[in-house]
UniProtKB/TrEMBL annotation:
UniProt xrefs under NCBIfam families: murF
Localization annotation: Cytoplasm
Residue span, Mur ligase central domain: 94-273
Recorded family membership: Belongs to the MurCDEF family. MurF subfamily.
Protein name, UniProt field: UDP-N-acetylmuramoyl-tripeptide--D-alanyl-D-alanine ligase
Enzyme Commission number(s): 6.3.2.10
Native source organism of the sequence: Allomuricauda ruestringensis (strain DSM 13258 / CIP 107369 / LMG 19739 / B1)
Amino acid sequence: MKELHALFLEHPTISTDTRKITENCLFFALKGPNFNGNAFAQEALNKGAAYAIIDQEEFKTSDRLLLVDDVLATLQQLSTYHRNHSKAKVISLTGSNGKTTTKELINAVISKKYKTIATKGNLNNHIGVPLTLLSIKEDTEMAIVEMGANHKKEIESLCSIAQPDFGYITNFGKAHLEGFGSIEGVIQGKSELYDYLKANDKYIFLNADDDVQKEKLSTYTKKMGFSTSDHQYYNIKFSGVHPYVSLEVEGTQIHTQLVGKYNFPNCCAAILMGKYFNVPLEDIKSAIEVYQPQNNRSQILSKNGFDIVLDAYNANPTSMKAALENFSLMKSKRKTLIIGDMFELGNTAAEEHQAIADFAKELDFDDAYLVGENFYGTNTTLKKLKSFDELKEHLLKNPLEKGALLIKGSRGMALERALDLL
């Protein structure tokens, strides 16, 4: 590993895709259900990679093809070795909703004072976490590492790779129930981050208004929390959504460009860490006020007379309910809803989709479209369409009336395509 790390320091760019080879990179020949990276190793060298790491002897045709027992395990071990070789402190975060937005906000705040790197996009799994750690540079002081999971023991594994110094859990929601089995399974799985931090005497940040977090950490002393009411913790006041979240901290008003009350704790987490790491409050304020969400995450758009909340990056019952509730509070003469199926809910899918259909009906929007096989199976008087193609066909014949529009669904639904139908 020492030799491989020395090689990595000479060639500090990693590639796992021959379509994205850069000159003098290291190519890791990962395997998947439908591909074998070993078969592309020579092509990687031909395209400019300095070395390729492989794990099948029959593909070793030159000295620049480095044979290891397991390419994925080697990538993970190298990232841990590099993380420990650097002086950077690692902040890890997980949770059911809001991970990526919270990570971006933390990075915006912390980078006001420190040299930081952070997970790109949502590269937060067993491959993404190592790649994030390997992006730590010699002068990096803080690495903000997002961790995703859809089953138990996954966060535990990612913690053993990243070895975080600090950690934060955004929330425990009804996400990936197919893998976790239940909300209790979600709590247990996400709390593996707490388990690691506590076992290694590391520091924990928490939302002290979340009863589960508060209870789990009641006897742990190396912690700092935020709360809207409990004065044992750092107090941050919610000032409202107009239509963006506003809050008050130490008498200072912060006006964000984030829609939805569900983004309030995400901002609080970034403020809390800014305080802990001695970032001046005026810098915390400016970092949060200039941050704009990207990639279909609670984006506010205007198009052809529509005021659109585009939240089509992902969805689960908890985030869907929060989005509907927030949309119902927005001021507009007319409100239309386009929501799509929520994936990975296992045997709770029918029940959870029915609950969302009932909730949407109860909020009484001017118009509502439920899209996807699961929503089509619900018992509701709202408009149901089996697929996006059916939605497209319907809207081309029956154009939407202008006003406010919420678009939300799981990634696989790709509901951002609805923008082209306005």
